[in-house]
Design a protein that fits this description.
Chain lengths: ~160, ~575
């Protein structure tokens, strides 16, 4: 089972090693980590996607809360949060399939960020499932390079 | 207008902060990167610095001091090799929840990251083995880091903290001596409110017919001995302790069933099997005690701890309460019924009678168990005992009883050979009027034997008992039982002459090998407050029983009588 952990931490160097070290030490499997500063420049938001059953994730949460630089940990369930991931992908293009790829991008609302005679660099963002579908579609053209940010997430608001 | 304070150097400030905090003793070893700090220490009239012979000795001394006094233990080391020599001690303190402040020198900030002379990334190295650590980047940050570090070390579940102190920050001037806003959340140092439902918790306990208290080191950190005794006596609930919990409940009390786990008493381990309710008080279901899925499987399991990460970590529980153990017990006791449990208590008394701690005492050779019984009688309830790691540690845990907390110093979580001697020295500094005995083996004592010099230099009357079996005894025991007596690298036929070694440091010593010599030897050992070395020759084949083989459960316990029956005495 995948869990999205939203972790608020003090924004200073070393905190990332404290947090990620806790995961490696206990050999918890991290799918992705994304970090960025919040509206308060002293505080960063980390989103970590982990695999594990509920009791493992509960243990992770409690261990995280023991770190002095961790302010809060929230386990976001997939259904009540908006999650996004950004990918940049370079695919091979030929004259014969260029329009085909462009129309797929249109369907997915992906942006073409760069174009050469033989390659196309596409920017796409969406939730995990959308990203996976998009990558599947690109597969057949030959993927030359990928950069993914890892997921970021926020809870849906009730008001 | 706030009066502008005069600027002082970072090193001066650090010393003043230690003084204001009430630290009067630190254990350490100087070096280039910590010299400005040592220079300020030299001028201090309030702080006594104990010069050790190895930084590992310094941190174990700080641990022995902290555990025996309940105060913060402070140790100092220089950068690089000095700092890395603290690593074992920090890990030890983390696993046994000992409040330690380590201050390390670091190369100047502009040299950090360049592989400068004697540079080590001690901040990075100690991330997983400290509760809090920081690289101090500016003298203006010293006050905040100091405050945070000391609060964290002693707050909640105690543990080690480390401040890495670059040389230029030690000389940098600052006027910031106090901070009003800490960066860390108060939950890391304030007592948490009681979490959980006291009523249903108490109801489950009141329903139990055969309850058992399982007490860990957390009980000692929480200073909860009085409350535990009250709870036990009110409900007539027998008490077993972990290795770390020894002393939290009087070992001589009628309700005490001694230590449980791998080398616990047979009656404690049988009590775990027979109880219908077990209440964990500040223990952690350690793997030397509890096998997940099999530990007290027929009992309702309950747990009180200050660290929520301990709940359901290895063994799942039915009831839990979060908070400071002393506070939680105070709230719980009024809700617990006063009951006599003649059947259950009587049953355990019979177990004690039928399955006592046993050893074969029929020969003239000295048996460590019998020796420790005598040592206990001679120094009853008065001594602080530290141990190293191995068979001698387990025998001491079994045969030396404690009336009070903070008298038993042992490396429980990490099992650090080399802990005993420095821990005893630290304890003696903290308790100059008490008898402090280090129980060690011929292997362990050699891991920090250089600290004999510290004993000699400061004239500290530490009593050192060495059980010499010319073996790494505990390793041999495992090899005998589980590796068909292939004694791979556990035997050595070379030991120094420990008595002469002591003499080289002006410490009096004696070696004995015969039972008839015990009384005299003990008299010599304990006669005054001077340091002594007593080397006791014991048979190599002597084993620690009972024993639950690693990874097995209470059901698989082997008792001494089992081996006798199998003709393997
Ligand atoms: C630093 C360290 N190295 C290795 C071990 C593994 N170990 C555990 S007990 C033991 C033997 C201890 O021998 P000794 O100190 O002579 O005590 P005895 O068991 O003979 O009483 C060893 C090597 C350890 N606990 N710590």
């Amino acid at each position: 089972m995948k869990h999205i952990l939203k972790i608020l931490v003090n924004n200073h160097p070393g905190v990332m090693s404290h947090v990620s070290g806790l995961f490696t030490r206990r050999s918890y499997n991290i799918d992705s980590i994304a970090v960025g500063v919040t509206q308060d420049s002293e505080i960063s938001n980390m989103v970590i996607v982990v695999k594990g059953d509920d009791s493992v994730v509960e243990q992770v949460k409690r261990q995280l809360l023991k770190l002095p630089d961790v302010i809060d940990v929230e386990d976001l369930a997939y259904h009540d949060c908006i999650s996004r991931e950004l990918v940049l992908v370079v695919v091979k293009v030929e004259d014969s399939n260029r329009t085909e790829i462009i129309s797929i991008c249109e369907v997915f609302q992906a942006k073409i960020a760069d174009l050469t005679k033989t390659t196309m660099t596409i920017e796409f963002s969406g939730n995990t499932r959308q990203v996976e579908h998009f990558m599947e579609m690109m597969q057949k053209y030959g993927i030359q390079e990928i950069a993914r940010t890892g997921q970021i997430a926020l809870k849906y608001r009730s008001t | 207008m706030p009066k502008t304070e005069a600027k002082i150097s970072g090193a001066r400030l650090m010393v003043e902060l230690l003084e204001e905090y009430g630290v009067d003793i630190v254990f350490g070893y100087p070096g280039g990167a910590i010299l400005p700090f040592y220079d300020e220490l030299y001028k201090s009239t309030k702080i006594k610095h104990i010069l050790v012979r190895h930084e590992q000795g310094a941190i174990h001394m700080a641990e022995g001091y902290a555990r025996s006094t309940g105060k913060l233990g402070v140790c100092i080391a220089t950068s690089g090799p000095g700092a890395t020599n603290l690593v074992t001690g920090l890990t030890d303190a983390k696993l046994d929840s000992v409040p330690i402040l380590a201050i390390t020198g670091q190369v100047a900030t502009n040299a950090i990251g360049t592989d400068a002379f004697q540079e080590a990334d001690i901040y990075g190295i100690t991330i997983p083995i400290t509760k809090y650590n920081a690289l101090i980047k500016s003298a203006d940050d010293i006050a905040r880091h100091f405050q945070e570090a000391t609060l964290v070390a002693l707050g909640g579940r105690p543990g080690p903290v480390l401040l890495d102190f670059p040389k230029d920050v030690q000389t940098e001037l600052t006027s910031i001596r106090k901070v009003d806003k800490l960066k860390i959340d108060s939950r890391h140092y304030q007592k948490p409110p009681i979490g959980g439902d006291l009523d249903s918790f108490a109801a489950a306990l009141n329903k139990a017919k055969r309850p058992l208290l399982y007490v860990g080191g957390g009980a000692i950190n929480a200073n909860a001995s009085k409350e535990i005794r009250e709870l036990a006596e009110k409900g007539n609930i027998p008490v077993t302790t972990t290795l770390m919990g020894i002393g939290a409940f009087p070992g001589t009390h009628q309700l005490s069933v001694g230590m449980l786990g791998m080398h616990g008493t047979a009656y404690a381990n049988k009590a775990v099997l027979e109880c219908d309710y077990i209440l964990n008080l500040g223990a952690r279901f350690d793997d030397r005690v509890a096998k997940p899925g099999e530990f007290a499987e027929n009992a309702v399991r309950a747990h009180i701890d200050i660290d929520t990460a301990e709940f359901n970590k290895r063994v799942s529980v039915d009831y839990l309460l979060h908070g400071d153990l002393k506070e939680v017990l105070k709230a719980l006791i009024p809700k617990v019924n006063k009951v006599d449990r003649p059947e259950w208590v009587g049953f355990l008394d019979t177990l004690k009678k039928n399955h006592p701690l046993e050893f074969d005492d029929s020969t003239d050779t000295i048996k460590p168990q019998g020796f420790l019984q005598k040592l206990y009688e001679k120094s009853k309830g008065k001594a602080i005992v530290s141990t190293d790691v191995g068979q001698h540690q387990m025998w001491a845990a079994q045969y030396y009883l404690f009336e009070e907390a903070n008298r038993w110093l042992t490396s429980g979580g990490l099992g650090t050979m080399g802990y005993g001697l420095p821990a005893a020295i630290g304890a003696k500094f903290g308790n100059p009027n008490k008898t402090v005995i280090c129980v060690s083996g011929d292997g362990s004592i050699q891991m920090n034997i250089q600290e004999l010099a510290t004993i000699a230099m400061y004239k500290k009357g530490v009593k050192i008992l060495i059980f010499n079996n010319n073996f790494l005894g505990m390793v041999r025991q495992w090899q005998e039982l589980f590796y068909e007596e292939r004694f791979s690298e556990s035997e050595w036929n070379y030991n120094p002459d420990f008595v002469k070694l002591g003499e080289a440091y002006s410490i009096k010593g004696l070696r004995i090998a015969n039972k008839s010599e015990i009384d005299k030897a003990l008299e010599f050992f304990l006669e005054d407050d001077d340091a002594r070395i007593l080397e006791v020759m014991i048979p190599a084949e002597e084993k620690v029983f009972p024993m639950i083989p690693a990874g097995k459960s209470q059901k698989d316990m082997i008792e001494f009588s089992d081996t006798v029956r199998a003709g393997k005495k």
